[in-house]
From TrEMBL:
Record carries keyword Plastid: no
Biological source species: Paraferrimonas sedimenticola
Name this polypeptide is given: Phosphate-binding protein PstS
Any matching Pfam family: PBP_like_2
PROSITE patterns linked: PROKAR_LIPOPROTEIN (PS51257)
GO molecular function: phosphate ion binding
Coiled-coil segments: none
Phylogenetic classification of the source organism: Bacteria, Pseudomonadati, Pseudomonadota, Gammaproteobacteria, Alteromonadales
Family of this protein: Belongs to the PstS family.
Annotated CDD domains: PBP2_PstS
GO CC terms of this entry: ATP-binding cassette (ABC) transporter complex
Transport is among the record's keywords: yes
Amino acid sequence: MRTKIVLVIMLALLVVFGCGQSNRDSKLVGAGSTLPNPIIQAWVKEFNQSHPDVSIKYVSIGSGEGIRRFLAGEVDFAGSTAALRDDEIASVERGAKLIPISAGLIVLAYNHADLPDGLKIPRSVYPEVFLGQAVRWNDPRIAAVNPDVSLPDAPIQPVVRRGKSGTTYAFTNHLNSMSSDWQDSGLGVARLIDWPNAMAVHQNPGSAQRVRISDGALGYMEYSVARRAGLKLAQLENQAGNFIEPTKAAGVIALQESVVPEQGPLRIFIPDPVGEQAYPIVAYSWLITYRQYDSKVKLAAIKDFISWGLGEGQAQAEHMGFLPMPKAVAEQSLKRAESVFGQIE
């Protein structure tokens, strides 16, 4: 009798611990970039509803912190608008993969009661603003391309990101590609910049809020965040010399210049598009995953989530103001997601 009781207890413990392990395996946690956060959250909601046996959570804390947690093994995946460097990939014992999942516009949003939406800002002007130089809204270069606008004699106050940011990486990659002044400054291309004479805030929503409450402010941020905040958006001069509004059509034209690497990490940058009607600042966002997972459940879930986002999820992305991924990029992303995962036995 005593033996039977012991066996029953042991069986119950196995069931309890087995269920606990199963529950842990079916929960995935990601963290990272605020730029693709709106669409990732929408995907997570839809995916969790259609996959009740799996729970995915994404914490929007910025690319820098998301990458840190990923490299430390604290999350199952990261989101970033800055691709991992080779040395960062090499440091991950389980391996790391970069999978582009969305693309978006980085806009310059501004706030001044006397300025209309769609102000034209020349490409010679905004690098100076973010270099901390004293530029005023009635600068002759701005006045020359906005002849019908009465420009205020007020300083432009730059709003920038505090901490490591993928949006900052994409923006400085653009500045470094099109401005000799930026190149000469030594600030370079980075997730973290020591910005001179600027108001620094955390995350894309923080940038939008700071611009919204700061008279004369000009800040860089993701398009949909700026639109939801009701901010005015600048028309930016592209490499061809045309002033382009931040629209889906102009972003799609820019993305047509994507060059997809056949081997190695799937890094794609278009820092200064050449197309005559291309919007000048576009950026991809990546899901960063491990090459190996210690659970078949997690392995299957992360593959399904990526496949779903690159398939059904793309229509949602467009509806929310993100850009449709070029077919070649989406196909290569899906191929990478389906072919190179493994499981640690």
